[in-house]
Amino acid sequence: MESTVLFTALREFTTGLLNQLLVNLAGQEGQIWLREFKRFLRKEPCWVMTILQRLISDGKYDSVNSNIIDENFPVPENFVLGSDPKAFHFDHSISSEDVVKEMDKVGYRPAMIWDLLDFGAKNPEEQRKYPIVGLGSVGEIDGGRSVPDLYGRDSERFLYLYWWALSGMPTVVSSVFEKRFLRPRLFDPLGLSLGILDPWSHGV
Questions:
Q1: Which residue from 16, 99, 135, 142 lies 20 to 30 Å from 111 (Cα-Cα)?
Q2: Residues of 119-151 as b/e, b for ≥16 C-beta within 10 angstroms?
Q3: Can you state the angle between helices 96-105 and 171-178, rounded to 10 degrees?
Q4: Mean pLDDT to the nearest integer, 42-67
């Protein structure tokens, strides 16, 4: 009897479940499926949605960079979503460092990825008007420093990554992601950086 049950279970797994698992692993959310499957094999809780996963789901993006995961963007201890988001727009080339300095002057901090996603979910049409970046979260990915970026094209909305640009880098690099990104390597002054009101700065 036990051998029959085992044979039936193995047949169902190899003919149905295994094929579906392979399809899922090869799909757009393959890294998520692999991570959760490893947790399942370790007998850890799996398919428990984190704040990052929830915000991405709420945003209903047409495409999400596969490197935007909790391992690359861990939530800081006691993190609270920011309030009073403000779009910082610059009509000239400026580095990421200098954008952060300009925000600090008026009592704002750069939006972290969770702030950015919360803004994107609540204001889905904004990223179709101009790209929006959150300079407060920098992920170390493939040997480089990357920041989350929201942008749109036609009817689609994307959540991607672009690199953090330091002072002294070519204009075409620093301008691409932080505040003006419609196509790679194109100078477009219509983008912006998202800032969050910092109540501890300048007595605000």
A1: 142
A2: bbbeebebbeebbbbbbbbbbebeeeebbbbbb
A3: 50
A4: 90
110-161 per-position pLDDT tens digit: 889 999 999 999 999 988 888 888 888 999 988 888 999 898 988 899 999 9
Q: In terms of DSSP bridges, do strands 144-153 and 132-133 run parallel, antiparallel, or are they unpaired?
A: antiparallel
- Amino acid at residue number 142: D
Average pLDDT, the chain: 75
Asked if 56 and 70 touch (Cβ cutoff 8 Å), the reply is no
**How far apart are the C-alpha atoms of 94 and 169, rounded to whole Å?**
10
CB atoms within 10 A of CB 57: 13
C-alpha 75/C-alpha 152 separation (Å) is: 26
What is the separation, in whole angstroms, between the first and last Cα of the chain?
73
Return the CA Rg of the chain: 21
Q: Which of 33, 30, 129 is nearest to 87 (CA)?
A: 129
What is the residue whose two structure tokens read 């149905």? 16
Q: Indicate the domain borders of the chain.
A: 2-48, 86-197
pTM value > 0.85: no
